[in-house]
Design brief:
Two copies of one chain form a homodimer.
Chain A: H1 8-26, H2 35-45, H3 52-64, H4 72-97, E1 106-107, E2 110-111, H5 113-116, H6 119-138, H7 144-158, H8 163-172, H9 180-205, H10 210-237, H11 240-243, H12 249-252, H13 258-281, H14 290-301
Antiparallel strand pairs in A: 1-2
Helix pairs in contact in A: 1-4, 2-6, 3-4, 3-9, 3-14, 4-6, 4-9, 7-9, 8-9, 9-10, 10-13, 10-14, 13-14
Cofactor (chains A, B): Mg(2+)
GO biological process, one term (chains A, B): terpenoid biosynthetic process
GO molecular function, one term (chains A, B): prenyltransferase activity
């Protein structure tokens, strides 16, 4: 495998279109009973978004698989893994937006789910998206032993020692001062865990060696943190229309961020260091990891 | 395997003590970060309960395994499966009790989780219990192909076509008149799906044949519905102190129940018919299914 033949924006746009089609297919029909719940699940999942997690699954899969195993069956498995991480991400946003959490009315330029429907439907839609994700992993057409590893990774990353735990620390930290280490722990759980799971799932499906998995883990740790630092910078430098969600909300809510801790310049320098870490981590994977490299550039350089 | 040597109440009490110890072990330590979330998860899970789902896992395992495969390893796998269904059940109660759902302040004679902690913690604790359950299945020391089947069953039973879907129908049906068929659909999803999953998981871990699985599925369908009919009868014939939750709440909330649809006598007759169905379903499994038979008796005869 050599350098990518399609430029990154075109590749990413293609992957976004593809995962949207996959998600449309794996979600229960809007007309299936219970209809309102299924419509709400679709509203939560199909409302756009950057699909960074799905892109990471595909890019890691591309980085790790040998050309001769790049079969249609493996592509199907990557689709399931990419859909699973997007479903978990979508559920987390729905619950995060609820009045008892961030109480946000706007997401991706649309009313949040509980505003469009109601709180009970929003909670249940989130609740139902989680098992749908695990079910998709269980249906991947790969060796059962690899599926079991994938389920373990998703379970750990979504749980109390991963995303849900990070969310809990985030809630508890409003109005308090965190050290850089505490802030790092919170974000590595809240955001980093699922970004890391995306990268690892792509590698597992592609039959990554243990060396390749280690490279992916280092990459994921750096990229996961970079994603959050970039988010904190955007929260103070961008506006609501560009973000598609309420800008300045973290600062307003007195939430600890990298910008509040390190200042804007300090945060930008930290972001560059993480970018360098991410690029260095995947050097052992060679040119096959070009998409992972480009995703790191994208995460550092994005403006929304 | 012959008839049980320990009488049912003693066996059930032993299984309850055992699963409590297993749950205590599989839940993250109360002192592990984030502490409040982990304490809340323990509050949700360790607060007693009948442990009917765990008992079904163990009884189905006993019904299906050959004596010579009754190894310690298989016992460990049954423990994980039993803990998984109890975790999912516990999460569903926590979310069900929230103000946007049933808004209940009392559960098993104690304040509900959001009353004891807060709504955000209750939502996140429920959210984190789900992946913990899937992670436990993935760690079962049995063939990966069987684990994959177990994950599929739990994913389906907990999702929008199972428990979460039944919950959504239940919410939407407040104040409306359901036919007996619609009520049956709602309950077979809301309660029956996870009871059925418990029975099937026990069978899968024990290496049940396809004939045995069919018997378990028929048994589970009858027992799952019987459980709900018994619950509806108890809601109007018992008091709050005995139930450990608010009695008469369904009738007050204008929720459709079997009693509101068929009357008290009609519901009791229906319960007896389901009991007979459950007993007939497991005849092919012989005396090894004695505990399943006794659980059916217990579900029909329980007073809380």
């Amino acid at each position: 495998m050599g350098a990518p033949k399609v430029d990154f924006p075109a590749w990413l746009a293609g992957r976004v279109r593809h995962i949207e089609a996959v998600l449309d297919q794996v979600l229960p029909e809007a007309g299936a009973l219970p209809e309102t719940l299924h419509q709400a699940m679709r509203y939560a999942v199909m409302g756009g978004g950057k699909r960074v997690r799905a892109a990471l699954v595909y890019a890691a899969g591309q980085a790790c698989r040998a050309t001769d195993t790049a079969t249609t069956i493996q592509d199907m498995a990557l689709d399931h893994a990419a859909a699973a991480v997007e479903l978990v991400h979508a559920y987390s946003l729905v619950h995060d937006d609820l009045p008892c959490m961030d109480d946000d009315a706007l997401r991706r330029g649309r009313p949040t789910l509980h505003v469009r429907y109601d709180e009970a439907t929003a909670m249940l839609a989130g609740d139902a998206l989680q098992p749908l994700a695990f079910g998709l992993l269980a249906q991947m057409p790969i060796a059962p032993a690899l599926i079991v590893q994938a389920v373990q990774i998703l379970a750990h990353s979504a749980g109390s020692l991963g995303m849900a735990g990070g969310q809990a620390i985030d809630c508890a930290s409003v109005g308090s001062v965190l050290t850089r280490e505490e802030l790092g722990t919170m974000h590595s759980m809240k955001t980093g865990a699922m970004l890391g799971a995306s990268v690892l799932l792509g590698g597992i499906v592609a039959g990554a060696s243990s060396t390749a998995r280690e490279a992916l883990e280092s990459y994921a740790a750096a990229v996961g943190l970079a994603f959050q630092v970039a988010d904190d910078i955007l929260d103070v430098t961008s506006d609501t229309a560009t973000l598609g969600k309420t800008a300045g909300k973290d600062a307003l809510g007195n939430k600890p961020t990298y910008v509040s801790l390190m200042g804007l310049d300090g945060s930008r320098q930290f972001l560059e260091a993480l970018h360098a870490d991410a690029r260095a981590a995947i050097l052992p994977l060679g040119t096959a990891a070009a998409r992972l490299d480009e995703i790191a550039d994208y995460i550092v350089g994005r403006n929304h």
